[in-house]
Amino acid sequence: MLKEERQNHILDKIKLNRKVLSSDLSIELNVSEDTIRRDLNDLSSKKLIKKVHGGALPIDTKAPSYEERKFYSLKEKNSIAKKAVNLIKDGQVIIMSGSTTNLQLAKIIPSDVNATIYTYSLPIALQLTEHPSIEIIFIGGKLNKPAQVTVGLDVVSSISQLRADLCFMGTGGINVLNGMTEPNWEVSHIKKCMIEASNKVIVLCTNNKINEIKRYSVTPLNQINTIITDLDPNNQIFIPYKEKGVEIL
């Protein structure tokens, strides 16, 4: 990978995750930590990032928009979606959160599947309009413009009255001790309701969310049935998750 490509990747990573660690970037990009440090110094000198001990932070405090997030880690999200779509069967009632990984899943649901999908995500609802036999029920409420999802009491009330076979949800972070967590309080509360309303809880999780923790708790690990990830399910990182009874796909 060329220097410019490497640095653009670092900038994308910081924009999405709000931080990067030199050690993680070294492994991910298959270069030495000295090379990463030089890249970070270069980006810092251009005032594109804030370099800190062991890594870097963004200069701005604005969270990435939905439009920005949906193009990040697209290969990984497509890998997860291809695993998840095999769990969707005729006649099911499904709730989908507003994650960008769920958007990729919505794109590949086979045209012969007949199911009902509830969602509070505008992009996912619009994507599903292209499916010939999915019944779409959009859950209205106050619109969170950057995330393109509805939030608030109306959403919570609607979901609490549902009974779904499956819920597919993204996550801000997940680890063994803290379970699933989110950076947004309203979203964390909606996801709690999704879990209570569903017979099976499936978390779609790109590798950068594994062993991460965000500010607001959603649910302990024992309330999650399955984690679908772009990593090899036999990766040692998942041993403690499996010991808690979570299926890894």
What would your notes on this structure say?
37% of the residues lie in helices and 24% in strands. The chain has two domains: 56 residues, Winged helix-like DNA-binding domain superfamily/Winged helix DNA-binding domain (Arc Repressor Mutant, subunit A, Orthogonal Bundle), CATH 1.10.10.10; 181 residues, Rossmann fold, CATH 3.40.50.10470. It is globular and about 55 Å long. A hairpin with a 3-residue loop joins strand 10 and strand 11. The two termini are 30 Å apart. Helix 2 crosses helix 3, helix 5 crosses helix 6 and helix 6 runs parallel beside helix 7. It has a seven-stranded parallel beta sheet, with helices on both faces. It has a three-stranded antiparallel beta sheet with strand order 1-3-2. It is of the alpha/beta class and 249 residues long. It contains ten helices and 15 strands.
Number of helices: 10
Cα separation of the termini: 30 Å
Percent helix: 25-40%
Arithmetic mean pLDDT: 91
User: How many structural domains does the protein architecture include?
Assistant: 2
Task: Examine the coordinates and then state which fold CATH places here, giving the name of the CATH topology of the largest domain.
Answer: Rossmann fold
Q: What is the global morphology?
A: globular
**What is the total tally of β strands?**
15
Strand order of the largest sheet: 6-5-4-9-12-14-15
Question: How are helices and strands ordered from N to C?
Answer: HEHHEEHHEHEHEEEHEEEHEEEHE
The main pleated sheet reads as:
7 strands, parallel
- Approximate strand percentage: 15-25%
Q: List segments where confidence is low: pLDDT < 50 over at least 5 consecutive residues.
A: none
Q: For the CA atoms, what is the radius of gyration?
A: 19 Å
